[in-house]
Structures are given as C-alpha cells and as structure tokens.
C-alpha cells in the first residue's frame, strides 16, 4: 500500500505554482491597465487622477502581496518563488500587451516617445519592477508570518498608509508630479523600506 506525499504547506516554488500564479498576476495587471486607460480617457480633472491613483495602488497591492501568499513564503525558497511569479506575471502581461493592447492603439504616441519611439523601451523596466515588487512583498510576508498570521489586510495597510504619507509630504514640499506616478513611486519606496526593516528584525 502506497501513500502519496502531501504538498508542503509553505514555500511552494514548483513550476506549476509559479507559472499559474504568474499567469494570474499578468491577467490582473492587464485588467488594471485597461481600467487605468478607461479612467484616463473618460474621467476628467482631479477626480480622474484620483481614480487613476486608486487603480495604481490596487494593482500594486495585488502584484506585490499575492505572489507571496500563493507561494506561502516563509523562507528563501518561497520568497524566490514569489519573485519568479512576479517575473512570469510581467511576461504574461507583455504578451497581452503586444497581441491586444498595442494593435488596438491603447497608448498615445508619448508613451513610445519616452524611449525614442521604441515600443520595447519599457519591457526591461517592467520585468525588473514586477519581480522587485513580488520579491519585496514576499520578504515582508515571510517576516510577518514568522510573527503571527499574515493576512493581506495586515500587510497592505502599512504600505498604503506609508504611500499616502509620502505623496502628501512630496506635495507639501512643493514637488509637482502626476498623482498616479507619484503614488507608484511612493508605493515602491515604502515597500522597499518595509522589506529592509523586516530583514533587520530578529526572528
């Protein structure tokens, strides 16, 4: 009589988990991009910029913390799996972008003009950012899991608060920037800070 080994409850970094999770992250990213484009074209003024910022933050939370949750990151193995999932997510989105969004004229010419009229300038940046966010999110999740229950609300709340505070401080300092761009930058900085703090804490 043989018994089938049960899968590990944590630190799942197998090919199936990473690829399926990455595909879901890519689809989530594509949905967020479409939502952003719809808001930017149909909701004018400050209200539209606020909605764009909310879309950016919601998408940021998803691509940051869902990979770590799906790999149940507790150690380096699960953290690495989450980072790989983030990379697969960016590649999945890239495929959707090339096959559907660009042929439909989703972006204005200024998007390509940033990279000297190349349609490929943003891909390496996108790959690095998607991998970085999932990696940092998994580090934070692993540390919180070691201290107790790490649910998405508990993880996302300090990141969201830190992001809003950074955006507000930058505005008070007189910096001028588009709200969605500022929110994305503040989110990334806040998350990186959280990961550094998590790594500095004693187990």
Structure commentary:
By secondary structure, the chain is mostly helical. It has one domain. The protein contains 7 helices and no strands. Helix 1 (15-42) packs antiparallel against helix 2 and helix 2 crosses helix 5 (123-147). The longest helix is centred in the first third of the chain and has 28 residues, at 15-42.
Observed structural traits:
mainly alpha; globular; disordered N terminus; 0% strand
Concise account of the structure shown:
By secondary structure, this protein is an all-alpha fold. The chain is built from 7 helices and no strands.
Which of globular, elongated, flat, extended, rod-shaped describes the shape?
globular
Largest beta-sheet details: none
Which structural class is indicated by helix and strand composition? mainly alpha
Please give the count of helices. 7
Q: For the record, give the distance between the C-alpha atoms at the N and C termini, rounded to a whole number.
A: 41 Å
Outline the fold blueprint.
Blueprint: H1 15-42, H2 45-70, H3 76-101, H4 109-113, H5 123-147, H6 152-172, H7 179-200
Helix pairs in contact: 1-2, 1-3, 2-3, 2-5, 2-6, 2-7, 3-5, 5-7, 6-7
């Amino acid at each position: 009589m043989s018994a089938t080994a049960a899968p590990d409850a944590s630190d799942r970094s197998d090919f199936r988990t990473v690829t399926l999770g990455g595909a879901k992250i890519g689809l989530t990213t594509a949905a967020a991009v479409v939502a952003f484009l719809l808001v930017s074209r149909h909701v004018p003024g400050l209200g539209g910029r606020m909605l764009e910022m909310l879309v950016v933050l919601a998408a940021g939370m998803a691509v940051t913390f869902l990979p770590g949750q799906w790999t149940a990151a507790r150690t380096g193995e699960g953290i690495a799996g989450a980072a790989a999932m983030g990379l697969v997510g960016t590649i999945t989105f890239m495929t959707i972008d090339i096959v559907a969004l660009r042929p439909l004229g989703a972006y204005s010419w200024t998007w390509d003009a940033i990279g000297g009229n190349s349609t490929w300038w943003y891909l390496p940046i996108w790959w690095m950012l998607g991998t970085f966010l999932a990696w940092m999110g998994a580090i934070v999740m692993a540390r919180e899991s070691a201290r107790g229950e790490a649910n998405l609300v508990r993880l996302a709340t300090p990141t969201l608060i830190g992001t809003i505070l950074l955006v507000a401080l930058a505005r008070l300092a007189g910096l001028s920037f588009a709200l969605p761009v500022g929110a994305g930058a503040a989110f990334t900085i806040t998350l990186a800070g959280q990961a550094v703090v998590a790594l500095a804490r004693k187990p």
